[in-house]
């Protein structure tokens, strides 16, 4: 008898937990998107970088400032190839 009550309590707790997670997921799908960032926060740029170790190339199109620091790849800073105009 006591074992049945424990199993019933665990089942109800699991049901409540699954119900709350399901409702939270449905609410997150129906909420509106956050507003876009203020203008001027990200700037459009066109620069290309190359990793001197492995040769991987990267094209950066947006950054918070006009001359961003080079990204790191293979634990070293990438080399600026040329700004694209």
Task: Describe what this molecule looks like in 3D.
The longest helix has 29 residues, at 2-30. 34% of the residues lie in helices and 28% in strands. Strands 2-1-5 form a three-stranded antiparallel sheet, with no helix packed on it. A two-stranded antiparallel sheet has the order 3-4. The chain has one helix at 2-30; strands at 43-50, 57-63, 72-73, 76-77, 79-83. The protein is elongated, with a radius of gyration of 26 Å. The termini are far apart. The mean pLDDT is 86. The protein folds into two domains: 1-31; 43-83, Rubrerythrin, domain 2, CATH 2.20.28. By secondary structure, it is of the alpha+beta class. It is built from one helix and five strands, in the order αβββββ. Strand 1 and strand 2 (57-63) form a beta hairpin.
How many separate domains?
Answer: 2
Give the uncertain stretches in residue-range form.
Answer: none
Order of helices and strands: HEEEEE
The computed structural class is: alpha+beta
Gap between N and C termini = 79 Å
Query: What is the rounded Rg?
Result: 26 Å
Strand content: 25-35%
CATH structural architecture of the largest domain: Single Sheet
- Mean pLDDT across all residues, rounded? 86
Q: Write down the oligomeric state.
A: single chain
DSSP E strands, number = 5
Which CATH C-level class of the largest domain is it? Mainly Beta
What is the share of helical residues? 25-40%
Largest sheet, spatial ordering of strands: 2-1-5
The number of helical runs is 1
The name CATH uses for the topology of the largest domain is: Rubrerythrin, domain 2
Shape: elongated
User: What's the story with the biggest beta sheet?
Assistant: 3 strands, antiparallel
């Amino acid at each position: 008898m006591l074992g049945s009550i424990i199993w019933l309590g665990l089942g109800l707790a699991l049901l409540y937990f699954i119900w709350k997670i399901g409702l939270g997921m449905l609410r997150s799908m129906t909420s509106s998107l956050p507003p876009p960032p203020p203008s001027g926060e990200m700037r459009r740029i066109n620069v290309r970088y190359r990793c001197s170790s492995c040769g991987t190339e990267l094209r950066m199109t947006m950054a918070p400032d006009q001359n961003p620091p080079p990204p790191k790849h293979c634990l070293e800073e990438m080399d600026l190839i040329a700004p694209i105009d």
